Amino acid sequence: MACTQKPLIIRKIADEWLELLGMQERADQPFNKLSYGDQRLLLIARAMVKHPPLLILDEPCLGLDDMNRQLVLALIEKICAGKETTVLYVNHHTEDRIKEIGNHLALEKNH
């Protein structure tokens, strides 16, 4: 593949992720002008552009309001459903459990 084609392919994949997120109209907007929730979604999508075999998400919903939390959880569910990327997902809230993740490790607090 020619070097000039690779950036075009990456841009096409990035555009597909923006479309999936419903953010294609904001493709040229500076990252720091986006809401905190949109930034979080874009960071996850950016990681997925290169089709990683492993995606590690450490508290991806931390600091998000309920609406953005639900959007991030839905995106993670979609990534897990794709079966192409293994997701290591760390969180401290059982209500943020991802259905598509079959293996769970629960750590108990020492009193």
Automatic annotation (TrEMBL):
<dbReference type="Pfam" id="PF00005">
    <property type="entry name" value="ABC_tran"/>
</dbReference>
<keyword id="KW-0472">Membrane</keyword>
<dbReference type="InterPro" id="IPR027417">
    <property type="entry name" value="P-loop_NTPase"/>
</dbReference>
<protein>
    <recommendedName>
        <fullName>ABC transporter domain-containing protein</fullName>
    </recommendedName>
</protein>
<keyword id="KW-0813">Transport</keyword>
<keyword id="KW-1003">Cell membrane</keyword>
<feature type="domain" description="ABC transporter">
    <location>
        <begin position="13"/>
        <end position="61"/>
    </location>
</feature>
<comment type="similarity">
    <text>Belongs to the ABC transporter superfamily.</text>
</comment>
<dbReference type="InterPro" id="IPR050086">
    <property type="entry name" value="MetN_ABC_transporter-like"/>
</dbReference>
<dbReference type="InterPro" id="IPR003439">
    <property type="entry name" value="ABC_transporter-like_ATP-bd"/>
</dbReference>
